[in-house]
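Figure S7 source data.
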Amino acid sequence: MQYYPIENAQNWQKEGIAEYQINGTSPTLAIINDEIKRAGKGFFNFEPAKNKKNPKLIISKLSDLNSATFQFNKEKIAALGEDGFSISKSQNSETLILANTDIGLLYGSFHYLQLIQKGSEVPTEGIFQSPKIKHRVLNHWDNLDRTVERGYSGFSIWNWHRLPRHIDQQYLDYARANASIGINGTVLTNVNANSLVLTTEYLEKVKALADAFRPYGIKVYLTARFSSPIELGRLKTADPLNEDVQNWWKEKTKEVYDYIPDFGGFVVKADSEGQPGPHNYGRTQADGANMLADAIAPFGGIVMWRAFVYSENTPDDRHKQAYNEFKPLDGEFRNNVIVQVKNGAIDFQPREPFHPMFGAMPQTPLMMEFQITQEYLGHDTHLAFLAPMYEEVLKEDTFVNGKGSEVAKIIDGSLDGHSLAAMAGVANIGTDRNWTGHHFHQANWYAYGKLAWNPYENSEKIADDWLRLTFNNDDTFITPIKEMMLKSREMVVNYMTPLGLHHIMAESHHYGPGPWVTGGSRADWTSTYYHQASETGVGFDRTNSGSNALGQYFENLQSVWGNINSIPEKHLLWFHHVPWDHKLQNGENLWNNLAMHYQKGVDEARANVTLWESMKGKIDQERFEHTLSFMKIQAEESVWWRDACLLYFGQFSKMPLPSGVEPPKHDLEYYTNYKPKNVPGI
Ligand code: BDP
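Tokens for the predicted beta-D-glucopyranuronic acid complex:
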């Protein structure tokens, strides 16, 4: 977003914005105008001139352009819909940015300025883009007191106290950043919701934010606490089938729309981790969702109903609970409800197999929920570029309609013909000067936006673009650092949870290792529940000899994943309890493989420090030093992870460390007693 200076610029880059014309007037078009001026100043240190006689750049809605003067493919552009845009050359070699709406023009203009920054010319056949997913939203787990659940980069950027009278520049910067990557919705509040946000006092504040975001094409959404009719409406119940409750929500929703006529809708976490929900009244998730859906339908809003529902009172494998609860409800939800499903069945682990609900509910639109904030991947200090993780899940074949039934096709609605399509990303931003703590974690926000726009986009392209837009266009920097980014998530998997291990993080804050976590109020919040380590082996048996969570996937996967010798090793311990001496594909036993994965993660984290040091001078000193110190933390803590986990599991395997794996510096007791101070909690 800085539009840093372009050295040795080519003519097409300079001429491309030197003189321009924008047809029409609106707040959004004014933003485009500012953006072009800002880019001219940043790239070339000149002020682009508007409305000259022969502008080289023309930005216009189709309806504002004279098709006799310019040649363009009207039908093709009309078909791009609300948010789509085209960038092409006219017969007189002007660049035309065309769209059907002002927001389409905003997206097209950002895209064009990014091309100039990257030095990529508009191809002769032109660019025609439209998003594959309609609702591309960030979920802020921000509390009204400005703490952020699972947030590691400062406080919430929403300053509720100063709202509605003060609109901070940061809100506009936020909107600008989101619009530049196509994000068009923001859920302002935590899923563990506070009903206060639905009071008149807060709605005035929400309205102020909605007004500020509107010209950027961003709608606001709120989390709705299911018990609000009791807490705010003084009703005795929140039963979704009770008429007073239904009326309360109708009235409340009307009030919301009086303030915010284009309000996006409600997000609900119900019957999960202590949140109230329809279960309290013996009702189903569909009963709850439909009540809100009916209240919001007259205003055109939607309900994003979360599937993250599991209970400590069910002895069944947590992996299976959401599927078991929701699948029988397929077809029962109103058509303005979309069920929001996390990428995996447990909880945002460094690696999870895709959630078995994808493919299981063809009559219900399902949306993807990714976590951008790194609750389980080393918080803000560990570099993990998450695009490969998102891409891995989106590309998984569910086999629901035979081969070629990838998760992405379920999310974009194409597999089952749903027009309601959405993606949510749990935001990683806060009041830190660089927004995300780690400079490189801005790349995860960016990657999320890109994949929400096009879930078929690939990580390599995303990393390449992000680096070029963020730092420079120098291939001696881009090539090695891109490779480092692309390998970084796998590196984290290696030193945290290799071979399908999961949820072995320290209790509550989930930052460091905690494979020994056991006991407490809920088994499904402990590590021993998930790894099941004993002298006979390690791993959770989810085949039909165990919990049979595998039975929730389609036939092809059941047979491949159900066999200890054919399951991809990355998922091995997720589905199987494996003897320590079992031989893996490389001929080495499980224990040796486990140890070698941990060591590999450490080796890579250390190598990243050396690589980054060799980049000195290629980027500005400030970001260089900041990133370097975080990388050193990561390298140090990868050792902590390796040693703690290998000492812990080694008690059961009773095997020596294979050669090449460094012996730990301390004993197991040291690690179990080690409690790092000031780790951000929940
Ligand atoms: C888990 C977090 C918890 C969230 C919950 C959720 O530990 O803080 O409230 O997910 O998604 O990842 O509702």
